[in-house]
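Apologies for my clumsy wording, but can you show me some protein sequence, whichever is easiest, together with the matching structure tokens, please?
=====
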Amino acid sequence: MLKKVFKKLDYGLIMIVILLFAIGITALYSANGGETGDLSEVYKQLAWFGAGVFTMMVVIMIDYEIIGKLWIPIYILINILLVLVLFTKPINGATSWFTIGSISIQPSEFAKIMMIIDLAKIIDYFKKKGTLNKISSLALILLFIAIPLALIVKQPDYGTAMVILVMAVVMIFAAGIKWRYIISAGIFAAIALPLSYYYLLPQHAKDRIMVFLNPQIDPRGKGYNVIQSRLAVGSGQLWGMGLFNGNQTQLGILPMKTTDFIYSVISEEMGFIISALVVVLFVGLIIKVINAARKSKDLYGTLICAGVTAMFLAHFTENVGMTMGLLPITGIPLPFISYGGSAMLTNFIALGLALNVYARRQKLTFLE
């Protein structure tokens, strides 16, 4: 049975992820100074990559329909973790991590996987009953989303909250929600966003938006990160300045160069050719996951792939956009490239779910 499953995997999708990781680990190696620098992050990233591949294989081996049956305990567990993490010691002003020795675990990362599995299950349930477009069903779905979303915002982690919101919208849309609800939601958002900005958004979040609109209002403070990132991206030109030769990267001027702004490192040291290749690879990854959604044998599988697509697309768009100053800085990592264990595991679990759906696009039997 499992042999049949692994034969039906999309190995082109796996190859894309390997290429993305190869570019990322090269940039991480250079950003840490190579042989003469501190390579602890490189070794940890390699270990997380190995753990991610192993986890992905486990996810592939378990039929996604069986995983779906565990949606209630999964939902309860992740919400418990999101509550407990609020009582941890703040790191950079956010209570988002459990720290065990030298390892930090971020529950909000795994909440994205929970939302993909659980939201797909709930939407599929209402769709089968024929009640998806009823107000009561949509209200229950929104309530289901609101609980973990509120806990994540409380940390605060606005970037992850935004990703989950995008995933939810895409999944509900993919299930066939009526246009009147989409138009109504658009009108509500148009009214709510400016009101939220003036009356609900904390000052530090407002400052980020103002700096995004004009980084030069505080070039040595809140605008520093985006200014240095844009300088790094632009200075790479076509072929890049070469590994270990990027001015912003090697002189320690570029902030968070192994996490949030690793795309800036790639652009500066490897140039437009490789940074454009990263974009092409992500487009290929997203197209392949959409293809898995199209070929799914059921709506539940389609919704899982829709959620995975939205997650990767939101991360890619926001991360690359913020490094160029096109979008506000939110601390969203670049999948399979940015340094980080929780993010790496989350990305591989999401990849495993998409491959799981694709491999089971036709019912497999022991007689095949």
Summary: The chain has one domain: 2-31+41-359. Residues 2-31+41-359 form one domain.
